[in-house]
Write a structure and sequence with these properties.
11 helices, Rossmann fold, alpha/beta, 7-stranded mixed beta sheet, 6-stranded parallel beta sheet, 372 residues, Dihydrodipicolinate Reductase, domain 2
């Protein structure tokens, strides 16, 4: 099978190359780059020297030669290539936001500043969070070529943390708060002042406060996930932070419980920590999460006493989740960790390719995380 990657010289594109180079079903890679066409891929990324002696070609040549195509391109530019892939009868996995909102063009246009170029393509597209839409993706792929809208990095970690609580009716009235911190690779390979080393080193900075484009995607997922249990989704506040690290996303999620513990110290009284009751409730919710994700190959519900950390999922396709409660027993606190370049981008895209072609879903994605 020939696998094409358009936008192979960006961070997500290069991560696709790294993962697919070890994939048992990817016989050959065809790589495209508009800015570096004609160059050797190894000249752009010398770490691949001796492993990827491939010349970067035009997107059109890559589509013509491939059995499946990944689009690792900026938002708003991939629809033409997705259309060309579909016309040729091959599936396309898009890592931008262009196909994440299905037929909801109004939301996409409001947050990304442009209308759909080819709205009819959404009839063959599916939102590619496997844990939510695996069945729909399989059914659509069985009927012909598909376009996968690969999820955003922040929505992946936040949504997987929230899914069991929303689907099983744990959420009470109030607002879910998601605070997430990402490594600088999330900003892409092109330099900008905010990602200049002196600006981001030794500093944790919130950005796009109240206006991050991933907010409507997380909210949309919350609605779909709550609907699994016949519930309405709570409201959302999402804040992103730039962390002084290359890779990873750590999300801390606060969800008001429908059935809080009746503990002393509420309503303005002193905060107490009744360890027994809290520990039992955490154990109960953790068991619910573990059962919910038992068949999921890339979601790890951590044991008691272990807290999710971005460094412990590095270079892997895992999402780690740890379960906690506030001292008053009224708010579920979830910590989730992913590698933003793998489960948050290229790894999840390969996971979707595996589903489309009937490969073992773990194919190419079995690396043990690097912790340092």
């Amino acid at each position: 099978m020939i696998v094409g990657i358009i936008g192979a010289t960006g961070y997500a594109g290069a991560e696709l190359v790294r993962i697919l180079a070890g994939h048992p079903g990817a016989g050959k890679l065809a790589l495209a780059s508009v800015s570096r066409q004609g160059d050797s891929f190894e000249s752009v990324y010398p770490n691949f020297f001796g492993y990827m002696p491939v010349t970067l070609e035009s997107p059109e040549r890559v589509i013509a030669a491939s059995d499946v195509v990944f689009l690792a391109l900026p938002h708003g530019v991939g629809e033409t290539y997705a259309r060309a892939a579909l016309e040729r009868g091959i599936s396309c996995i898009d890592l931008s936001a262009d196909f994440r909102f299905g037929d909801d063009e109004e939301t996409f246009s409001a947050w990304y500043g442009k209308p759909y170029e080819y709205p009819e393509l959404r009839r063959r597209s599916v939102y590619g969070l496997p844990e939510l839409n695996r069945g729909r993706l399989k059914a659509l792929a069985a009927d012909g070529p598909v376009i996968v809208g690969n999820p955003g990095c922040y929505p992946t970690g936040a949504s997987l943390g929230l899914f069991p609580a929303l689907a099983r009716g744990l959420a009470g009235p109030g607002t879910v708060i998601v605070d997430s911190a990402s490594g600088v690779t999330g900003g892409g390979r092109d330099p900008s002042p905010a990602f200049h080393y002196p600006e981001c080193a030794d500093s944790l900075t919130p950005y796009k406060v109240g206006s991050h484009r991933h907010t409507p995607e997380i909210r949309r997922n919350m609605i779909a996930m709550a609907a699994v249990g016949g519930e309405a989704a709570p409201s959302l506040i999402f804040t992103s932070h730039l962390a002084p690290m290359n890779r990873g996303i750590l999300s801390t999620i606060y969800l008001p419980l429908r059935e809080p513990l009746a503990l002393p110290g509420g309503k303005g009284g002193p905060v107490r920590f009744p360890g027994g009751e809290i520990a039992e409730k955490v154990r109960e919710i953790r068991e619910l999460y573990a059962a919910f994700y038992r068949e999921e190959p890339f979601v790890r519900v951590l044991p008691p006493g272990t807290v999710a950390a971005s460094g412990r999922v590095r270079l892997s396709n895992f999402c780690d989740i740890s379960i906690h409660l506030d001292p008053g027993g009224s708010t579920l606190i979830l910590a989730t960790a992913i590698d933003n370049m793998v489960k948050g981008a290229a790894g999840q895209a390969v996971q979707n390719m595996n589903i489309i072609f009937g490969f073992d879903e773990r194919a190419g994605l079995t690396a043990i995380p690097a912790s340092f």
